[in-house]
Specification:
Order of helices and strands: HHHHHHHHHHHHHHHHHHH
Shape: globular
Largest sheet: none
Mean pLDDT: 82
Number of strands: 0
Number of helices: 19
Oligomer: single chain
């Protein structure tokens, strides 16, 4: 009997080791957003993250058996998301009752299936993350491997830009490396791509996974490392500085905007606490009064003016670095030629055309939307006339098998599932914001408290980044929110354990 128990223990240990290895591999390959082999297997899809392979193994071998063994108990956070998905399937069934036009040789069943597959991938990333991070030790290990993954991608990104500025071009061996990790094998002049499909995707993964963790730890002073650099500098602060530099050299405008808004939020939060402290005089005199409305208004007005000045300064500097930003302050062109031509000079108008086209589909089907993968078929009817003058739009109109997408996550949800689907998805986002606030305010564990702040940064970044990307298949949002949910469950376990301990001591 003892032999059987020891054999079972060995098997469980091997199983846990394999699971741990796969999870570390998952985190290590997270920056590879479009792996060539997977892209070919998925019919040339640009969204083909290598992390999907270890994710599927973890899902099939460990999570599903545990799911069926313990009953159909899903995290409460995922329920609005499943309702959104079911509603999306329901509204998609009404395709036959809608006058959906044809678009080149694009197939409706294929388009719907792509949405279902990418959404399934996203749910997989989310559930596997929650399942793999079950305690504080798992969380520390996860953050450590995220650090390792981030260091690799930042080093490679900095190497790309350094080579460009030293040589004025990229050597063939660097293209060879890119062909291994990216399905388009492209390198962009003066812009860091890392291991991603394009520079904006690198900025997206930085803003969604790496920067929130390192920024939160830099703010709170919490570190997973026992030692400091030169015994003085917190290592996460060094990683944060490197990540900001990497984000900068992506030349991704939405990436910059996301980071600036996050910093603005943290500055406002810090300033609010500072004003609350300064508004009360440190005097013990019985006749002292708190500073009134004028003091608080003056402080906030000063902050607003300072932030506005910083925004204009940043825009001025960036206009000299990125050629696309040189007409940012050309207000005369904006007044004389209108928004369209001004946006065209900023190389931004193409995206506006896709946004408008998708939003017009939402106007056609405001309550239930057009269905998963369907809005692109209306593109020729809904794209503004001005869009026909743009090369990027015309290129899509001439491609036989490619369907235009919204290039905006929030407009996409509106166009596919209407206001009802948007409300369901938004409730999922709000739940994570609430959990993050609860962690930051109520947790007594500094690591969990730090992850609460990181969670708030993640939600803000997700909202802003959604104005540029519209795919369910990229893992970064799912993994980041999965970490937040896993941390929230840990805090619940800590509270339950504390209650048990308190009851035991009372007895």
């Amino acid at each position: 009997m003892s032999f059987l128990f020891s054999k079972l223990a060995i098997k469980m240990k091997i199983s846990e080791s394999a699971q741990s290895l796969l999870w570390k591999l998952f985190l290590l390959v997270l920056p590879i957003s479009s792996f060539p082999l997977l892209s070919r297997l998925m019919g040339g899809a640009s969204v083909a993250p290598l992390a999907a392979v270890p994710m599927l193994l973890l899902l099939i071998i460990w999570w599903l058996p545990s799911f069926f063994k313990n009953g159909f108990k899903l995290p409460y956070q995922v329920k609005p998301l499943l309702l959104y998905f079911l509603f999306g399937l329901f509204t998609t069934l009404f395709i036959s009752f809608r006058d959906v036009p044809t678009f080149q040789s694009a197939s409706i069943p294929k388009s719907v299936l792509e949405v279902i597959i990418t959404f399934g991938m996203g749910i997989g990333f989310y559930l596997v993350t929650i399942h793999s991070v079950r305690n504080e030790k798992n969380l520390r290990t996860t953050v450590l491997w995220i650090n390792i993954s981030g260091i690799i991608v930042m080093a490679y990104s900095l190497l790309q830009v350094l080579i460009w500025y030293l040589l004025g071009h990229y050597p063939e061996w660097l293209y060879g490396i890119q062909r291994i990790f990216s399905s388009n094998a492209m390198l962009f002049s003066r812009r860091a791509t890392g291991l991603a499909f394009e520079p904006s995707w690198l900025a997206h993964q930085l803003n969604m996974v790496f920067i929130p963790i390192w920024l939160a730890m830099s703010v709170t002073g919490y570190s997973i490392f026992k030692r400091k650099l030169f015994n003085k500098i917190q290592i996460e602060k060094v990683l944060l500085a490197c990540s900001i530099a990497t984000l900068f050299i992506t030349l991704s405008r939405i990436g910059w905007i996301t980071f600036f808004i996050v910093i603005a939020y943290l500055a406002i939060q810090f300033f609010d606490q500072l004003i609350n402290k300064l508004s009360v005089k440190p005097s013990k005199s019985p006749d002292h009064k708190p500073h009134g409305f004028g003091f608080r208004f003056g402080m906030w007005a000063g902050l607003f003016v300072g932030m506005l000045a910083l925004i204009f300064l940043a825009g001025f500097v960036l206009s000299y670095i990125d050629p696309r930003m040189r007409d940012l302050f050309d207000l005369k062109r904006l007044i004389d030629a209108g928004f369209m031509r001004w946006a065209s000079k900023l190389v931004f108008l193409e995206r506006v055309m896709y946004w408008i086209a998708a939003y017009r589909v939402f106007q056609m089907f405001p309550f239930m939307g057009a269905g998963f993968g369907i809005p692109g078929f209306f593109f020729q009817k809904t794209v503004p006339v001005y869009g026909s003058q743009l090369l990027d739009v015309n290129d899509f109109l001439l491609k036989p098998f490619f369907l235009p997408n919204a290039k905006n996550f929030w407009v996409r949800i509106l166009s596919e599932t209407g206001i009802i689907g948007f409300a369901l998805y938004a409730s999922w986002v709000v739940i994570h914001w609430r959990d993050a606030v609860e962690l930051e305010k109520n947790s007594q564990n500094k690591m969990l408290q730090t992850m609460g702040l990181a969670g708030k940064i993640i939600v803000i970044s997700m909202i802003i980044e959604g104005f540029s990307l519209d795919s369910f298949g990229l893992p970064y949002v799912w993994v980041a929110l999965g970490l937040l949910s896993a941390t929230w469950f840990m805090s619940r376990d800590d509270d339950a354990q504390a209650n048990v301990t308190a009851q035991t001591s009372d007895r």
